[in-house]
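Contributing new records

If you add data, match the layout below exactly. Sequence lines come first and carry their own label; structure lines follow with theirs. Keep one chain per record. Anything else will be rejected by the validation script.
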Amino acid sequence: MSVFSADPTLAPYLALILFGFLPSEIWRVLGVAISHGIDEDSELFRLVRSVATVLLVGVVVKIVALPSRELAAAPLWTRGAAFVVAAAAFFAFRRSVFAAVCAGEATLILAVWLLGR
């Protein structure tokens, strides 16, 4: 008898938890435990933060410049406008990545909706 015998529709969700969430969560918990005594103003911490920020910007620029699937249907100028709005929200809300993502996504959704695509 397997785990999926009762309800085979749960298999994708279980796979997502086992292979997507748990491996990532282990490293997050270890990072929090290890970083407890790190000084936020140290040079090493600034370097790590800078590298993480550059990687995030690189991924976002790749998504905006070379989109795939449904995002490719949105014109380049709408993706660029969403990027600019997201950057403005990032700085307006005290460097909040969450605010930037929400503002950029809302801008993109609104622009595509208004264009009717």
